[in-house]
Amino acid sequence: MGTVVIDSDQHLVEPRDLWSQHIDPQHRADAIRIEDDAVGNSWLRWRDETLGLGLVQTPGDTEAIGVQRAAAYRGEPPAAHYDDLLPPDHWDARARLNVLDAMGVDEAMCFPNYGLLWERRLGRDLVAQLANMRAWNRWCAAVRTDGRGRLHPVGHVSLRDLDWLDTELHGLASAGVRTAMVAPALVDGHPLSHPDLDRAWSAFEATGVAPVFHVADQPRPFDDAWYVDGDDAFVPTLESVFLPTAAALATTDLIVNGVLERHPHLRLGIVELSAVWVPLYLMMLDGGVDFTTRLNGRPPAGLSLRPSEYFLRQVRVSSFAYEMPAHLRSQLGGAELLMCCSDYPHSEGTADPLGDYAQGSAHGVTPDDWPGLFSGCAEFLLGREHRPGD
User: What would the pLDDT profile of 3-40 be if each residue is shown by its tens digit?
Assistant: First the structure.
């Protein structure tokens, strides 16, 4: 029997009625929805605001998304209706299992699709934001059941209401959900290491749910004035250029200000935010703390380990095949940090992850070559594998 393959980054497309069906009844008027315009384009809407275009994506065809978006914003009808184009495996857990079989993938972590588009936009109304997050989390329980242990839906939570967070993490854990997407961002003006938020990290640790940073429209690491693309931009250019910045910033805060020291069993994932930055980052992390400790006459916090050792111990990062993860591993001194991923069914993703990772004689890898990339690190993030010495 070969190595089990766990894809650390797939997405499930939310059905039109997910939010209205799963939201608390008193918040139904604030449920996100997908509705058609007069010419037949489908739009993600909240109250009277448009959050994005309903799109059916094909792995490897990013340009087609831009063409569809441009036509819809010109008011042109789609070539075919959204519901007719949407394959069952994009939203149905049982159908997705057939795709996993075709890919040669045993299990997959499944993030939201439209849930990546609205957290920042709904941020001005915390009640509505949390209600729609809870709707997704409730659907995750059904995905867990229908996925027969092979699909691992990723919850969606906020640290802005710690009572709500505690309830939500216990609910996710009871449903067998082991990870939850969290914004790598300030929480109402406070860094993630703020003492008032220590209760949040204790709750993640106690429930065994691992927080995960993932690309999404969340509170931004730079001032909004820098983002000049316009509200109709699917992804602002700065977000693409500085893709890992928010995650690197948030992880640094958690490490150097002692959160991972105080919570040694907290597991943290970084997904779809690239991995090529990690070797240089770890060098700068140790070097920056060493330098400022000498310069300032004191360390930023009482740490028993080198800063990079917390990252190695508790953080796992998804690495696309084109990043040559075998080369990255050599730069990391053989450390087991990286997870395989496909981003299926997104246009920037792939429907053949194993083939992509195997390409190239110098840097190609297979599951049997590198079990850590294809299963071990994802199992760690899912809480199925203990650290050495635990």
Answer: 899 999 999 999 999 999 999 999 999 999 999 999 99
Residue 245 has pLDDT above 60, yes or no: yes
The CA distance from 154 to 147, in Å, is: 13
Task: Beginning with the edge strand found earlier in the chain, give each strand of the sheet holding 33-36 in spatial order.
Answer: 33-36, 42-46, 49-53
Joined together, the tokens standing for residue 339 give 């997870």
Structure token digits, residue 65: 């998304």
Among 327, 283, 350, residue whose Cα is nearest residue 9: 350
The amino acid present at 309, given as its one-letter code, is E
Lowest mean pLDDT among 71-80, 132-141, 294-303, 357-366: 357-366
What whole-number distance in Å separates Cα of residue 126 and Cα of residue 133?
Answer: 10
Alpha-carbon distance values, 269 to 55, 108, 153, 275, 334 (Å): 27, 14, 14, 12, 19
The band of 388, judged by pLDDT with boundaries at 50, 70 and 90, is very low
Is 12 in contact with 110 (CB distance < 8 Å)? Answer: yes
pLDDT tens-place string over residues 111-159: 999 999 999 999 999 999 999 999 999 999 999 999 999 999 999 999 9
Query: Exposure pattern of 328-341 as b/e (b: 16+ CB <10 Å)?
Result: bbeebeebbbbbbb
Question: Cα dihedral sign for 307, 313, 318, 321?
Answer: positive
- The CA-CA-CA angle for residues 243, 246, 249, to 5°, reads 130
Give CA–CA dist 235/222, Å, rounded: 15
Output DSSP code: residue 15. Answer: P
Report pLDDT for 390: 35
How far is 283 from 307, CA to CA, in rounded Å?
A: 10
Q: Are 95 and 101 in contact (CB under 8 A)?
A: no
Amino acid at 287: G
DSSP string, 166-193: HHHHHHHHHTT--EEE--SS-BTTB-TT
What is d(CA 130, CA 158) in angstroms, rounded to the nearest whole number?
Answer: 7
